[in-house]
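User: Please run a holo structure prediction.
Assistant: Happy to. Please share the sequence and the ligand.
User: Here you go; the ligand is zinc ion.
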Amino acid sequence: MRLAKYSIGIGDRFGRQGKAQLAALIKAKARGVSIVPVWNKSHREHSTIGSAPGDVRADADAAVRACRWTDPYFVDADHIAMGNVDLFMASSDFFTLDVADFTGRAADEADITAFVQKHRGYVGSLAVPGIEETLEVSENQIRAIASRFLLAVKEAAKIYRHIEAAKGAENFVTEVSMDETDRPQTPVEMFFILAAIADYGIPAQTIAPKFSGRFNKGVDYDGDVARFAKEFAQDLAVIKLAVRQFHLPENLKLSVHSGSDKFSIYGSMREAMARFDAGLHLKTAGTTWLEEVVGLALAGGAGLAMAKEIYAKALARRDELAAPYATVIDIDEAALPSSQSVDRWDGRTFAAALKHDASCEAYNVHFRQLLHVAYKVAAEMGDRYLQALDENEAIIAQNVASNIYDRHIAAIFVGR
Ligand SMILES: [Zn+2]
């Protein structure tokens, strides 16, 4: 299976917003831009909500039928490892192989030596079209990169072969992710990681590197925008060269994880993609669930009461809910409103505090982050929550679709 130039990872924690999310892609298509939807839900989300990988497949298939979506679509087994890949085997046709756990653990000396031998020809100056400065490559550097990454790529290859044996090579898309490592990869590292991916026979169609700066869940990028823009463009240049040098799949492209709401870097991403004629896979971060809460609040009455109840419970359980996300959220407790004051809010006030509109004075980034990790509270409400979603479907769908289209797709893929 071949992944198209543009794709977007859409999360849907409670499996009710597939149609609304597709509506955003249908709108993009009407404006001449085809974007392939990839439903993704991680093992962690499944454990929190009590859903199973097969549910995501069923939700995706149902939404596709209901919207008469005839283009390709995928279901991503996001950040899987050998220990849980089998749970996703039947329902997924996109697999994100997470190598972060093995990065930094040394490979066998024999593997390292063989890798250095094979790629010794690159020692010296490496000119990468699109990067101004030439990259200097030494044998020691190749050896250091091999020691740091080769075992991780070898592990990814093991998982890849396991999936290939079960499904057949033609029946799924492979992504390699390294975004959860401790520091960004340099262009030279990226080049030789791609060499290793090719050496081990992984037909990766997307690769998720780590960039500098913080990619917190559901909020804007926090870091040096110019530095990010440089890294992003360098990665595009290196991928382009590596595809030719190592005979990787021609459609290999970058995947940006936790890509929701990174408004301050979308412009430089779009500019670099145009410059390199590059594609992109943008994984959003499950913020569709926040649009459900926005919709409930705006609906007023019982919907607003439920939104307030979710916040009150989340506030009381903030330590427990934030713990699994500790490295990807920054909540200042002092900036969280008390549940008593939130109780006095009307629907518009609640929605304004939650909606990610930095130009709005009422927007509270801490309130938003707490609610982002509070989906467990809604999951525990069970049918009562799902029923509220059904009762307020129209207003929720409108918020879900406009969030994806106006804030994300228009900014990155279509252009304003
Ligand atoms: Zn990731």
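The chain has two domains: 6-286, 288-404.
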